[in-house]
Amino acid sequence: MTALHPDPYRDVDAQPDPIRFAESLEERGRTPSQVRLRQRFLRFMPVRPGHAVLEVGCGTGVVLRDLAARVGPRGRVAGVDQSRWLVRAAAGILRRHPLRRRIALRVAAGGRLPFAADRFDATLAVTLLLHVAQPLEVVKEMARVTRPGGLVAVQDQDFGTVAVTHPDRALTERIMAGVAARLYEEPWSGRRLPGLLRAAGLERVRLLTDVYQDTTLEPYTKSFLERRAENAVRFGLVDERTAQGWLDGLTALVAQEAFVLTMNYYGAVGAKAPAPRGRRRPR
Ligand SMILES: C[S@@+](CC[C@H](N)C(=O)[O-])C[C@H]1O[C@@H](n2cnc3c(N)ncnc32)[C@H](O)[C@@H]1O
What we know:
There is one protein chain. This protein is α/β, with parallel strands linked by helices. The chain has one domain (about 15-270): 3-Layer(aba) Sandwich (Rossmann fold). Helix content is about 40%, strand content about 20%. It has helices at about 20-30, 30-45, 60-70, 85-95, 135-145, 170-185, 195-200, 220-235, 240-255; strands at about 50-55, 75-80, 105, 120-125, 145-155, 165, 205-215, 260-270. Strands 1, 2, 3, 4, 5, 6, 7 and 8 form an eight-stranded mixed β-sheet that branches. α6 packs across α8 and α8 runs antiparallel to α9 (about 240-255). The mean pLDDT is about 95. The site of S-adenosylmethionine has 22 residues, from α1 and α3.
């Protein structure tokens, strides 16, 4: 049996409890600060009425549902994810959604998209590249299926920017930086996105720096920090008692209304070069 990668999003279907990841994505999706982050990013791209848009790494479809509202009745939205389990969960949620007819789902990996070249007006990936071994390959593949002049957009959090209140700063640093370094190839992935788009040959690259902010310990933030504590024990950074004491320190701050957690999200958008004159197809 091959050992699982420590980052569960590399292979959700191989996890003993894939439902936990579906629930966590939906929980994050409805967190107010996350709703604002997503909407600002989609406006920044921008996604317009009538657009054909593809999201790579769509998970349970949080972003797809926002996209469906933005592209309007003449637009269409496609979502792919390599997890069969999450695509099934997305389809189950969509069954009760009023805009379901605008959205198509497929199981596929970002490095090998099952679409012809130049098919979409825009392609995007939201908190995907952080979890991928070869992010440049995925961005190039997104560019391939985007039409000349169309947009390729990526957004990632950057775990080098997490700021959280805690009485024990050294322990907080050990847990937050230590876990991120062991889970991800590039924990600072967010700030590297503009460079990645340029390396993939995209033009007119723009950057939106945004912040996730929580002062009340939202359910999503709480489970994020609990998973960090759990992983710190798994990676041998702290023992269970220390991890629990660290979480208790955070809860105490919430009771004093002194809790703050912020984390930067970077959104980068680039354009695919227009087709040379004479090779342009009428649209
Ligand atoms: C953190 S989730 C983000 C889901 C969604 N974009 C959202 O914001 O709610 C990352 C998703 O990427 C998927 N994923 C990871 N590696 C992938 C790859 N190489 N190709 C396609 N999907 C991938 C995972 O299965 C997971 O659904």
